[in-house]
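User: I need a structural model of Putative ABC transport system permease protein from Tepidibacillus fermentans for a docking pre-check later this week. Nothing fancy, just the predicted structure tokens so I can convert them on my end. Input:
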Amino acid sequence: MNLFESIRIAWLGIRGNKIRSLLTILGVIIGVAAVISLISIGQGVTKKVSSQIESLGTNLIVVTGMRNQGGVITRDDMKLFDKSQLISKVAPSIFKTGVNVKWGNSTLGVTVEGTNENYMDVRNFHVQQGRFITIEDVEKRKRVAIVGQDVVTELFAGQSPIGESITIDGQRYSIVGVMEPKGEVMGQDLDHYIFIPVSSAERLFGSTKLNTMYVQTASSDQSQAAISEIASIFEGKFGKPDLVKITSQDQLLGTMDSMSKTLTMMLGAIAGISLLVGGIGIMNIMLVSVTERTREIGIRKAIGAKRRDILSQFLIESIILSISGGIIGIIIGIIVSKVVSSSLGWVTIVSFWSILLSFSFSVLVGIFFGIYPALKASKLDPIVALRHE
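Assistant: Understood. Predicted structure tokens for Putative ABC transport system permease protein:
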């Protein structure tokens, strides 16, 4: 018996028990769909977070004063980097969340961040209208403000606020600029920010201690050397190495990549268990099928069917079941990914390798769990099989 004849007979056997066949491959369908949908969601989340990290700035290093030390970084520390050939720009940051901002009869809670003229370049921010903070603003402690898109929408009903005066914690500031939409980055809604000169923020908040320094390196390949230099500078000043935390953009991306791989492996393993359960289901049903068709096997052997013919028939039947489940599972997995993306607004990425992986695994499941029933069928004694009722 040739291969095509074995496939035809196997297909007829499956068609003769449609409901049973569908229930048999249900585990494979669920497993494949789970692999594709979970991995696509995991990859989508990874890509979104990675893009957010990249949008934090260009060649960025973040220097944070440890809170348990009461804050140790000030604007004067920026002068420590003046002679460095590795560092191109430094932007200070002192911020406060939940600050009440008033315009007319409207009040809005926002995050107010004080910084300098380097902030836009270091953080990859852009002004949509007006201008950003200047050197003169910082030197003269001008009460000027640049507002985010959410502030424009919620406080000014989408109208241009340039030239308007707002009250920030009881102090009046003139709006000179509007930022381009930035969205949420690392859990922070940057469109809900108001930026003011760092010198004005120090006066407003009653503190000269910075929360953060954003440091831009001259080039991306100098990041590690710059980190070492910054650590050495602060250790030389404070005599302790643990008063500041130094994190680079590359380190964040590396951590994210590692977490992504771990997450993908975990999700794939969870979904793979469903496939294994589906394979066990196929084996059980195939064993039942062998028992039910014992007489048929005996007749086929009696008229000349060889052991390998019986083996190939039942093995091909198992493979067809798993392939059918794989195809249906792929379709459902893609649909689930699209539904999740559109309904929840999550980014999902259905990659070719996840489809190939899940489909290949489903075929292997069919082969692995179909071998035992097929061998059992092929070893049946034709005389004993013909006596089976």
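Before docking, keep this in mind: The chain has two domains: 3-52+254-387, 67-242.
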